[in-house]
Write a structure and sequence with these properties.
This protein is an alpha+beta fold. The protein has one domain: Archaeosine Trna-guanine Transglycosylase, Chain: A, domain 4, CATH 2.30.130.30. The chain is 14% helix and 34% strand. The chain is built from three helices and five strands, in the order E-H-E-E-H-E-E-H. Strands 1-3-4-5-2 form a five-stranded mixed beta sheet. The radius of gyration is 15 Å and the shape is globular.
Length: 152
Amino acid sequence: MTAESSNTPPDVVRGITLRQPWATCVLAGKDVENRPAPWNWRGWLLLHAGKTIERAPLRIPLVARAIRGRTLETGAVIGVARLTDCHRCPDSGRLCSPWAQRGAYHLVLADVHALPLPVPATGALGPWRPSAELLKQVLLQLPDLPALKGTT
C-alpha cells in the first residue's frame, strides 16, 4: 500500500512517519514530535511507524519507561493523533515538554488513539496524504472516534 493514490480522501487527514521507538512513545504519552522544519498543517494524523528502529534512544530512561512491555511495530500505521500546534521553544529556559528537543520545531500532539492492530503501509518524509483505502482500514478499528467520521 502506498502513502498516496488517485483515490485520496478529502484534505482532513495526513500521515506522519516516525522511526521507532518514537512512534510507540507517542502512543504511550509523548506529546511533542521534534522536527527540523515547521509544519503549517493542523488536524488529524495517521501515526506511521517507519521501518527503522533507532537503537540509541532505547537507552534513554524516558523512552525505556514509555515503551516497556510494548511491541515496536514497523512499516505500519499504529494509531492516530491530532496535530494542534507547531512551535519552537526559546533557546534558553524551560522546554514545553520532557520530550521536546531544544532547537527543533515541536509538533504538539493530542487525542492519541492506538490501533488494536497495525495496518501495514508505506509512509513518506514530511506530511503525506493517506489513500482512501488506508484511511478506511484505520477507521474500521476506531468506530467510536466521531471526529474522523465522514473522511472516507
